[in-house]
Amino acid sequence: MKLRLMPVLLTSLLSAALLFGGWYAYRQFAVQEPLQKIVSSYEGVNESHISINRNEVTLKLELEPGTKLRELVQYVNTEGKSAMGGRTLKLDVDQNSSQLLDEYWEKAMFSVAEAMESRKYTLIPAKLDGLKTQNTEYKDVTATTEIDDNNVYVSLSDGKQSKFIILPRVPGSMGVWNNA
Fold this sequence. Notes:
Blueprint (H helix, E strand, L loop, with lengths): L4 H37 L3 E8 L3 E8 L5 H11 L1 H4 L3 E6 L5 H19 L5 H12 L7 E6 L3 E7 L4 E7 L12
Helix pairs in contact: 4-5
């Protein structure tokens, strides 16, 4: 039996094109597009970019000041459950911060780290509000804290600009937060 080279090559190329084209179409139209619609429909999301790999879905977000981050995560997890298919959700929030908000967070970081380390999460809002009463320059800063099973979400806003911090509730050494 003699195999001819051209039909074998054409069949191989066509099979590979169908396989990878089908995989790309499935990923684009059955996973990424529905998630994009879900995220874009949430109030406060200005822009979003979705990156999907085998184990996680990464959302790169640009948010308006005052957006409730915990509610957004909960909304995406419930509405996009079928599209995510058991992958974990990871957020990457673009910071539209100001010098004032950065200084406020730097001064609050030690107290927040202490509360996170001791797992006394109710101290975080008290520490953030206490910082506002100690320094009158921070009187216009609004600090909001929310919590879920995996993270503590801190939102700082001065009305025009905002800073979103996601602190994992995972026990262990805290170190420096790379997403602050």
